[in-house]
Amino acid sequence: MSEIVDQINHVHREVGTREVADGEARTVLLRRTYDAAIEDVWDACTDPERISRWFLPVSGDLKLGGHYQLTGNAGGEILRCEPPRLLAVSWLFGENPGFSEVEVRLTAEGGERTVFELEHIAVVPPEMWDQFGPGAVGVGWDGALLGLALHLTGEGAPADPEAWQASDEAREFMTRSSERWGAAYEASGAPAEVVAATTRATTEFYVPKG
C-alpha cells in the first residue's frame, strides 16, 4: 500500500442525523490528527493562497458575514470565524442547494499536533441518499483531508491532479474511502444490504470501470 493510500487509515468517520430548520439533516464527520501546530493548520484552512495549494482556488469577501466562492465548486457565507479553533460556512452548490453547512473545528494536542474535525451537515434529497449514502460527499472530503496532509508536510499536491485522478493509486484511494464510508454508515445503524448497495454505487461513481 502506498503512503497516500495509507492516509485513509488516519481518519475517523461518523454518519448521523441532526434536526435543522429545514427538517432532518444528514451529517458526515471526519476527524484526524495532523503533526502541525494549531496556528499552522488554521492558517492553511483560512488563507486563500494556501487553500488554493491543497484544495481549490477561493475568492470573495473572506471575513465573518462575507461570501466565498470555490472555483467550480461550492460557495456560501462565512457564518462563524473564531481563530484558531472554529470556522463555519454555508456550503451551497447548484440552483436549489437547500440547507448545507460545513464546520471545521481544531483542537491543539500538545505544541505541534492538532486534532482536525470537519462536519458536513445537509438536508439531502432522499433519492440521492438512498442511492449513494454518505459516500457521495465523504469520498470528496477524504480527498480534501489528504490534500491538507500533503500540504502540511510540505509534499504538496500532485503536479498533474487530473492525471493522478486516473492513476491506480487514486482509484485505490477512492475505493478504500468508499468502503470506509460504508462501514461508518453501517455503524450508524444502516442495514447491511443498504450499505452494500450505496457503497457499490459510490465506488462506481468515483472509480468507473474503464
From TrEMBL:
Chain segments annotated as coiled-coil in the UniProt record: none
Pfam families tied to this protein: AHSA1
Domain Activator of Hsp90 ATPase homologue 1/2-like C-terminal: 35-148
Cross-referenced CDD domains: SRPBCC_CalC_Aha1-like_6 (cd08899)
Top-level taxon: Bacteria
Family according to the record: Belongs to the AHA1 family.
Designated name of the protein: Uncharacterized protein YndB with AHSA1/START domain
Record lineage: Bacteria, Bacillati, Actinomycetota, Actinomycetes, Kitasatosporales
